[in-house]
Write a structure and sequence with these properties.
The protein is an alpha/beta fold. It has 12 helices and 20 strands. The chain folds into 2 domains: 198 residues, Rossmann fold (3-Layer(aba) Sandwich), CATH 3.40.50; 145 residues, no CATH class. Helix content is 27%, strand content 23%. It has a 9-stranded mixed β-sheet with strand order 2-3-5-4-1-6-7-8-18, sandwiched between helices. Strands 9, 10, 11, 12 and 13 form a 5-stranded antiparallel β-sheet that branches.
C-alpha cells in the first residue's frame, strides 16, 4: 500500500485584497502541468502542481499535497502559497519529518467544486505512479479544499478507484456552508454599475463555487415573502455528495475549526448596521446601508440603496427586507473582514464606513459538521459531541480567529495527525513499519 500525504488548500480574498508577502528564495524542485481525466459539465479542470521535496528524500516518497482552493484574483503563485501555508513553519517542519510538499494550484478556483475535485483525483493517481514506498495517504483539506477533498475521496470510493488514504483532515471547511452577510451581498449588487469594486465582487458571487458554498445567496432572496434561500447549486452539490456516500468511509476523519466552540459569537447583534454610506449634495443623493441578519420572525431591513440625480448613474432605489433567518453574520466561527475591505474602498460620490468590520465566514458548526440547527451550540460542553459529527476527532480554537489562521496549536494538531501512523527512527525521518517488513523480506531472500 502506498502512502500519500495530501493537504488541500483553500484561500479566500474579498474586495480584491491580497496580503503583501516578502520575497522568498525557496523554489520548488519541479512543476507539473495537469489536466483532469474526468469531465464535469463537458469540461476538464486544469492546474499546476509544485513539487518541493524533503532534503532527506532523493525521490518523491511521502507527499504532503496542498491544494489551493479559492484564489479570487488568480494572483497567488508558488511564493504566496508557500508563505500562506508555512505559517508556524508548518511546511518546513513537515519537510524535516521527511514529507515532500506538493502544492496544487488550480487554474479556476471559482469553478465547480466537483470539477476541481476531479483534478485532485488525477493528481492522486499521478503521485501513486511517480512516488516510491508503501505508505498510505493523509489528505488535509484547507478551507474549500476540504470540500474538494471530501468529494474526491468519496467519489473514488464510490467508483472503486483506490485512493490509498488513511486520514482525511479538514481545516475550517464550510461543510454546511459559508456566510457573507446577505445585506452586504445586496449592497454589492446595487452598486455593481457604479463601482469597479462592487462589480468585481458580484462577478465572484455569481461564480459556481460561491453559489455552491454560501448559506444564503443574494439572487435567491424572495422579494414576495422576504425569505432568503441558498442557491439551487448548493442543494445539488450536497445531493451529489449524499448519493456518493456523503463522506469517505475507509479513512480516519479529522475536523479543525478556526471558530470558538463555547457558543460565543462576535460582538454585534442581530440587525446592527454593517455598512453606512449616505451623500446628500443639493439635488444629488446617494445611499447604501446594510444591516446584519435578524434572528427571529420579525421583519427588518437589511439593505437600503438610493441613487437620485447622481451624474452618469441612473436613478434607482431598492430596499430589501428579511425575516425568519438564522443570525449567521455573528455566530461562532472563523471571521472575514469583508465589511472592512468595502469600507477601505471608496465610491465616486463619497466614503463608506463600518463599525463592525468583521463577520462570521465559516460557522464552527459548519466546519465541524455538527448535527444541530443551533449555531451557538456549546460544542466544547457536549461530552457526547463525536456522536453528532461524521468526524472521528475534532479540534477548535479558543476564540473566533481569522479564516485559515494556522496558529501554533493548529500547526501542532496538523503535525500530530499527519505523523500519527509514522515511527521515529533515530530522530530522523518518519517511516512506515510496512516498509521495514518489506525490506526484511527482501533481505531474507538474498
Amino acid at each position: 500500500m502506498k502512502k500519500i500525504y495530501i493537504v488541500l488548500f483553500h484561500f479566500i480574498i474579498f474586495i480584491n485584497y491580497l496580503p503583501v508577502y516578502a520575497e522568498i528564495e525557496v523554489l520548488p524542485d519541479e512543476t507539473w502541468s495537469l489536466q483532469s481525466d474526468i469531465l464535469y459539465n463537458d469540461e476538464y479542470a486544469s492546474g499546476k502542481a509544485h513539487i518541493y521535496k524533503s532534503d532527506k528524500n532523493s525521490q518523491l516518497k511521502q507527499p504532503v499535497i496542498f491544494v489551493e482552493g479559492l484564489n479570487v484574483d488568480k494572483e497567488m503563485g508558488w511564493e504566496e502559497l508557500y508563505q500562506q501555508l508555512n505559517q508556524q513553519n508548518l511546511i518546513e517542519n513537515l519537510r524535516l519529518h521527511c514529507f515532500d510538499i506538493v502544492i496544487l494550484d488550480v487554474d479556476n478556483s471559482l469553478d465547480y467544486i466537483q470539477k476541481n475535485a476531479f483534478l485532485l483525483v488525477t493528481l492522486i493517481e499521478k503521485i501513486s505512479v511517480e512516488k516510491y514506498g508503501s505508505e498510505k495517504s493523509v489528505v488535509i483539506g484547507v478551507g474549500s479544499g476540504g470540500l474538494i477533498a471530501r468529494y474526491a475521496l468519496v467519489y473514488m470510493e464510490n467508483k472503486n478507484i483506490p485512493h490509498e488514504t488513511s486520514t482525511f483532515i479538514s481545516l475550517d471547511s464550510p461543510h454546511q456552508g459559508g456566510n457573507i452577510p446577505l445585506g452586504v451581498q445586496h449592497w454589492l449588487a446595487f452598486f455593481n454599475s457604479a463601482s469597479n469594486l462592487a462589480k468585481a465582487q458580484i462577478e465572484m458571487l455569481n461564480m459556481p463555487f460561491s453559489k455552491q458554498m454560501l448559506i444564503y445567496h443574494y439572487t435567491e432572496t424572495n422579494l414576495l415573502t422576504n425569505v432568503p434561500n441558498p442557491h439551487p447549486l448548493k442543494k445539488e452539490f450536497m445531493d451529489e455528495l449524499d448519493n456518493l456516500g456523503n463522506y469517505p468511509k475507509n479513512v480516519r476523519k479529522i475536523a479543525i475549526s478556526n471558530g470558538n466552540a463555547q457558543g460565543q459569537g462576535l460582538s454585534f447583534q442581530p440587525g446592527d448596521q454593517l455598512l453606512d454610506f449616505e451623500v446628500d449634495l443639493f439635488i444629488a443623493k446617494a445611499m447604501g446601508n446594510a444591516w446584519s441578519l435578524p434572528n427571529s420572525m420579525q421583519e427588518i431591513t437589511i439593505f437600503h440603496g438610493l441613487f437620485q440625480n447622481v451624474p452618469d448613474i441612473p436613478n434607482n432605489s431598492e430596499m430589501i427586507k428579511i425575516k425568519g433567518t438564522q443570525f449567521f453574520d455573528n455566530v461562532p466561527g472563523s471571521t472575514q473582514p469583508t465589511n472592512k475591505k468595502i469600507a477601505d474602498g471608496e465610491l465616486p460620490t463619497g466614503d463608506i464606513t463600518t463599525e463592525n468590520p468583521y463577520h462570521c465566514f465559516v460557522p464552527t458548526i459548519s466546519a465541524l459538521d455538527i448535527d444541530t440547527t443551533d449555531f451557538f451550540y456549546n460544542v466544547e460542553g457536549d461530552k457526547d459531541i463525536l456522536n453528532k459529527t461524521p468526524f472521528d476527532k475534532i479540534y477548535y480554537s479558543t476564540q473566533n480567529e481569522g479564516h485559515l489562521t494556522i496558529s501554533s496549536g493548529c500547526a501542532s494538531w496538523i503535525m500530530k495527525e499527519v505523523c500519527i501512523n509514522a515511527i521515529d527512527i533515530n530522530d530522523d525521518c518518519k517511516i512506515d513499519l510496512r516498509d521495514v517488513l518489506i525490506l526484511l523480506k527482501k533481505l531474507s531472500k538474498i
